[in-house]
Amino acid sequence: MTGLTLSSADLDPRRRRILFRCWHRGIREMDLVFGQFADNELPNLPEADLDELERIMAEEDNDLLKWILGSEPTPQHMQTPMFERLTSYKPDFEEIAERFGLTK
């Protein structure tokens, strides 16, 4: 859960670009959510799902993090099956922080 596990070697250029963007979001928590999702689902996503994923990825990371963690309600335009699939990859961030001594 700490980095890329899917090789981009067998992916088409669009999927390679998406895979890179999923693991390089700018906020580590979002790297974990998007990266794990991409590693597990990206190779088999149809084009329409790739379109939806790219729309989601265009949102601000800080907003996405709040919606995924549930600290703010998810706006109507984000209440899609793809967003639900993506949020199912949310790790237990409190457990991770505790394991690495990042809690106060």
UniProtKB/TrEMBL annotation:
The keyword Chaperone applies. This is FAD assembly factor SdhE. Belongs to the SdhE FAD assembly factor family. Keywords: Chaperone. GO terms for biological process: tricarboxylic acid cycle. The keyword rRNA processing does not apply. PANTHER family: PROTEIN EMI5 HOMOLOG, MITOCHONDRIAL, SUCCINATE DEHYDROGENASE ASSEMBLY FACTOR 2, MITOCHONDRIAL. It holds the Pfam family Sdh5. Transmembrane segments: none annotated.
